[in-house]
Amino acid sequence: MRQRIFHIMLLLSIVSIPTFAQKNNGSGLELGAEGEYKISKKASVSLGTEFRTRNSFKTVDRWSFSVGGSYKILSPLKISGGYTLLYNNNIEKINYDDYGEVKNWRPSYWGIRHRFNVSLTGILKVKRFTFSLRERWQYTYRPEKTTRRYDFRDEAWEDKTISGKGKNILRSRLQIDYNIRKCKITPYVNAELFNSCVVEKIRVIGGANWNVTKHHQLSLYYRYQKDFEPDEDFDPNMHTLGVGYKFKF
Predict the structure, then answer these.
(1) Start-to-end C-alpha separation, the chain
(2) In the chain, count of helices (H) and strands (E)?
(3) How many other CB atoms are found less than 10 A from the CB of residue 91?
(4) For residue 160, which of 175, 172, 145 has the smallest C-alpha distance?
């Protein structure tokens, strides 16, 4: 059984490799760890941390630390919420004048962001399939930050203050899980839309969760992200290979 599980996990990795080789696409790694404690049959709390890279795995993208909780209102309906502290490595930025000449250059810099979310998830089980629809409101606040940039006209460094900014977004995710008979691995696929006034981003994920024991769970997934309005926070057309660990108290 363990060899069978290992082979399935390995196959998921191999299938995703050709996608990472495509040109003009960002790629990165995502590592996560989470601890979950059940207060009762309906309520639970969790703590987690995450590490991400970008630029073909070569650049650290961000660290994050989160706390959350969930409560099962009814058997097919769950409400949850949480807070995440993000420590982002913002990409460098080059500004040009009207003639195409470089005006100034701002190196990459690290900055803190605060993120809050509230979610409502509906679950429907059909034979060995589980369908879930999650609607999540997310608010992210970036505090004011002073950075340095180089002015090529004056040939000198100058300080630039970036104003604080908040952003609301609605994330809608549909997921399908399949329960394989007498197997500890549960494969799944999902698609998620990020909406403000328009669709800003789409994510598609394929992966599997492996219940190693009653308390330990490993996960492996591949994620493709299409960003329609890329900014300093995201890389467009991002390919990510993710590995996660979860401990259930």
Answers:
(1) 25
(2) 1, 15
(3) 19
(4) 145
**What pLDDT does 236 receive?**
66
Q: Could you tell me which residue, 3 or 120, shows the higher pLDDT?
A: 120
Say if CB 77 and CB 103 are below 8 A apart: no
Pick the closest to residue 203 from 168, 230, 237, 177 (CA basis).
Answer: 237
The neighbour count for residue 57, using CB atoms within 10 Å, is 13
Query: Residue 186 pLDDT more than 70?
Result: yes
Our measurement of the distance from residue 135's CA atom to the centroid of its chain's CA atoms, rounded to an integer in Å, reads: 16
Please tell me the distance from the alpha carbon of residue 187 to that of residue 28, in angstroms, as a whole number.
22
pTM: 0.85
Nearest in space to 146 (alpha carbons), one of 160, 134, 132, 135:
160
Asked if residue 10 has pLDDT above 60, the reply is: no
Bigger pLDDT: 236 vs 23: 236
- pLDDT per position as a tens digit, 74-89: 989 999 999 999 999 9
Q: Strand order in 145-151's β-sheet?
A: 93-96, 102-106, 145-151, 156-162
Among candidates 14, 95, 29, which has minimal Cα distance to 235?
A: 29
Length of the chain: 249
The 3-state secondary structure of 105-130, one letter per residue: EECCEEEEEEEEEEEEEEEEEECCEE
